[in-house]
Model the fold of this input.
Amino acid sequence: MKYGAKNKLIGTVTAIKRGNVMSQVDLDIPANSPMSSVMTIDSLDGLDISEGDKVRVVIKAVNVLLIKE
Done:
């Protein structure tokens, strides 16, 4: 997958909070700073992200994108 964002980190999913339409994915990143990404339930299920997964964190402007490794 190609993308233009240059800010990339590797993180571990620490928690997932599912709502009716949206979900919040909490991450632990190397800088010891908590980070979260909000995405639709369909996106979360499509990426098959679970707690404990390692994900690539791609940051562009106000968006935080997760890519499962």
Remarks:
- The domain at 7-68 is CATH 2.40.50.100 (OB fold (Dihydrolipoamide Acetyltransferase, E2P)).
- The longest helix spans residues 41-47.
- The mean pLDDT is 86.
